[in-house]
Design a protein that fits this description.
heterodimer; A: about 425 residues; alpha+beta; 4-stranded mixed β-sheet; 3-stranded antiparallel β-sheet; about 45% helix; globular; B: about 280 residues; alpha/beta; 5-stranded parallel β-sheet; two-stranded antiparallel sheet; 11 helices; binds iron/sulfur cluster
Chain lengths: ~425, ~280
């Protein structure tokens, strides 16, 4: 007899649920189903190509900057232009702001409540101590806000940025504003570190409770960042097998030959595989494949991480800790970038729009993101978004299945299955609005 | 005063903006918002903020259920107010194809059209923006009386509009801010700040990018139909530039333009009552 158990999942971006399928009390599999859809790939058809950088950030209010920049880069690829160096730096800063914003949100607002057995970080529920949460949430909000302020200073708007345009950026960053921002960052770094240390302690307990994830390989890690600066995107995607035995790279325009896309009927999100194996993108993939963070404090954390968990490390809940290392790295990076002259020099180059194809690749907080546009008569005729959460979907379901088996026995279901399902999903920090677009 | 946020089909930008207002709001009063709080049902609260459009049967069901439990409803963001980006699938030239390819037995079911929330629930206050900036949330929740948006984005932008500067054509597709002190319309760009309600602080034109009107029509226009909005903008360009009115007309009426999506996206196909201006913040 087959039955299902369903869990709505909160504290993630967007609407999704987990369904565990059982047969005679035995776990068959667990599914992760996306529950919303807007249809960007369809309604963008017929729109003027140069409108993309304004419209596509609205795919997602959490990682809008990634879409903004992927769009601009895809058009630059189609028109064959290269932005001037200052514009590149300002865009880099936008991405760093995005990383800080996203990692802080995921770390403190999405997953920290799990570690404190609270429903939220704000202390609305009586179960957790209000005072403790009150002070944590104040600090967490302050750190997170640095991220949105960086997006605002570099991108014009704090959520759906506007400053990147085809050929460059519309304006630079005022020196006084940059100085002011650096002050705030310097003040935020120790706060972020102390929050993260606390987080590290708390997750240690949970990592033990969850155990490791034997039976979960092989699979591929996927990144598109510089090995000595994981905030900086590169022009190719790297795939590495979990045991390190194989490494493949490909350029964004070759994604169809390298990735397999699986449409499913019960979810609005597709799933991707590589060599028919699951993929893991996001923070842990980056920490496993890079050499260094390129900034001192974050490097210290990375070292500590590698000593404690090994390298590569595969436990699911380590995604969370890697996000913390990246948060600190983002703050340090932003400080460095803002020390440069971002006000003088050419902000954009002349552009001659033309028809054809374009591919844009950026490393979004959740992994490599590709936009592909086909342009005819200046209008979009075809669009494809290759989304990091979609790469992770198989891995999420595999981890959920492993986890469900620990809780579901033929004669009983152990307490805590629903929270455990939440932990697993949140470790991957999926973004449903992006995944379904 | 407890409040809750119901997230329908949107991008979560409206929620992220609310989080940014966190240091001035008492978020311990936030009883429900799935993005950051894991409570599964909307509790009985004084104020319910609704973000996103009604795109699926589940959106509809959730809204109806929540509406019965709360005292006041605020429609937050372009998606909730007019369908916004979530409603773009309704563009007539793609709608059939859109529905045909998306249904395929998936749940929740897509509704035939994406609807603004006031088609299904009584809305007490509208807070437009894509997303509304944090400061607007602070005022809304802490001191709604202080929220009087009576002017246009230009007031907050502050770029100069020199009389003798009269562009003769719209700039080519790529935006470029030639002079950060001069109004973008005076640089031949299609900025709609002159017809858009203020309250956002004009971040876009300040950064050098034309306002695309995400805050919606200004009070002078809000109770009128879309034609009044087009005419008002056409007039602005006639007064401020020497660009051929035909060129402006064509550019403004292109239903594919981003700016069109934020202003009046609901007026294109749906017959909607215009919103009384005292309800719009
Ligand atoms: S109004 Fe804008 S920010 Fe808010 S949900 Fe819709 S697209 Fe996102
Ligand atoms: S740039 Fe736009 S918002 Fe600023 S003054 Fe000109 S029309 Fe108004
Ligand atoms: S300037 Fe215009 S587009 Fe930008 S936030 Fe304000 S109303 Fe929205």
């Amino acid at each position: 007899m087959s039955t299902t158990i369903q869990f709505p999942i909160s504290r993630i971006e967007g609407h999704a649920k987990v369904v565990v399928n059982l047969d005679h009390g035995k776990v068959l599999n667990a599914r992760f189903l996306a529950q919303e859809y807007r249809g960007f790939e369809q309604f963008l058809k017929g729109m003027p190509a140069e409108q993309m950088p304004v419209i596509v950030p609205r795919v997602c209010g959490v990682c809008s900057t990634s879409h903004h920049l992927a769009a601009v880069e895809a058009l630059e690829d189609a028109y064959d232009v290269k932005p001037p160096p200052v514009a590149e730096k300002i865009r880099h800063l936008m991405m760093v702001g995005q990383l800080v914003q996203n990692q802080a949100t995921s770390l403190f607002f999405f997953t920290l409540p799990d570690k404190l057995q609270a429903t939220s970080i704000f202390g609305a529920d009586e179960s957790a101590s209000k005072d403790v949460l009150g002070s944590i949430s104040k600090k967490a909000m302050a750190v997170r806000k640095i991220g949105t302020e960086l997006i605002a200073i570099a991108g014009g708007q704090f959520i759906h940025p506007v400053k990147a345009v085809v050929g460059g950026v519309v304006s630079g960053i005022d020196k006084a504003a940059a100085k002011e921002m650096r002050k705030k960052i310097k003040a935020a770094i120790p706060i972020a570190c102390s929050l993260f240390d606390e987080y590290w302690q708390l997750s240690q307990k949970m990592t033990k409770a969850v155990g490791d994830w034997e039976g979960d390989d092989p699979f591929y890690y996927m990144i598109a960042v510089d090995k000595n600066d994981p905030t900086r995107p590169v022009d190719h995607v790297t795939m590495q097998k979990s045991d390190g035995s194989e490494t493949v790279t490909f350029r964004p325009e070759d994604f169809r030959e390298n990735l397999q896309f699986h449409q499913v009927q019960d979810s609005f999100s597709a799933k991707t595989s590589f060599n028919d194996l699951p993929i893991r993108a996001n923070s842990l993939a980056r920490m496993n494949l890079i050499e260094s963070m390129g900034t001192p404090i974050a490097n210290g954390y990375l070292e500590r991480f590698r000593v404690q968990f090994g390298s590569p490390a595969h436990q699911i809940l380590l995604f969370d800790l890697c996000r913390g290392i990246e948060l600190i790295n983002g703050l340090e990076r932003a400080d460095r970038l803002l020390a440069e002259n971002l006000m003088d020099g050419e902000m954009s180059v002349p552009v001659e729009p033309r028809d054809g194809f374009g591919y844009g690749l950026v490393e979004a907080p959740r992994g490599p993101l590709i936009h592909h546009y086909q342009i005819e008569n200046g209008l979009i005729v075809n669009v494809e978004f290759v989304i990091p959460t979609v790469h992770n979907n198989f891995s999420i379901e595999r981890a959920l299945t492993t986890m469900a088996k620990r809780f579901v026995h033929e004669d009983r279901i152990d307490m805590g299955l629903d929270s455990a399902m939440g932990w697993v999903v949140r470790a991957f920090d999926p973004c449903i609005a992006c995944a379904t677009h | 005063m407890q409040f809750a946020v119901l997230q329908l089909t949107g991008c979560a930008g409206c929620e992220v903006s609310l989080l940014n207002a966190g240091d001035e709001l008492d978020l311990a009063k936030l009883a429900y918002m799935p993005l950051v709080v894991s409570t599964h049902d909307v509790p009985e609260v004084d104020i319910l903020l609704v973000t996103g459009g009604i795109r699926t049967d589940e959106d509809l069901f959730k809204l109806r259920e929540a509406a019965s439990k709360v005292k006041k409803i605020v429609a937050v963001g372009t998606c909730a107010i007019s369908g916004g980006v979530a409603g773009l699938g309704d563009r007539h030239d793609i709608r059939k194809h859109f529905l045909a390819t998306t249904h395929q037995g998936r749940v929740p079911r897509m509704l035939p059209k994406c609807k603004p929330i006031d088609t299904e629930a009584e809305v007490d206050i509208y807070l437009p923006g894509c997303p509304p900036v944090p400061d607007l949330y602070v005022k809304l929740l802490n001191d709604p009386g202080s929220l009087k948006t009576t002017s246009i984005v230009c007031k907050e932008c502050g770029r100069r509009k020199p009389k003798d500067l009269r562009p003769t054509k719209l700039t080519e597709s790529i935006h470029k801010d030639e002079d950060p002190n001069v109004c973008l319309v005076k640089q031949g760009q299609l900025c709609v700040g002159t017809s858009t309600r203020n309250g956002c602080g004009a971040p876009c034109p300040k950064a050098g990018f034309p306002c695309v009107g995400c805050r919606g029509p200004s009070n002078n226009l809000i109770e009128k139909d879309a034609n009044a909005w087009f005419e008002s903008l056409a007039n602005v360009f006639r007064r401020m530039t020497d660009i051929d009115p035909e060129e402006i007309n064509e550019a403004l009426r292109s239903p594919h333009l981003a700016l069109f999506l934020f202003q009046f996206s609901d007026y294109t196909e749906t017959e909607l009552e215009s919103r009384p201006k005292e309800k719009v913040l």
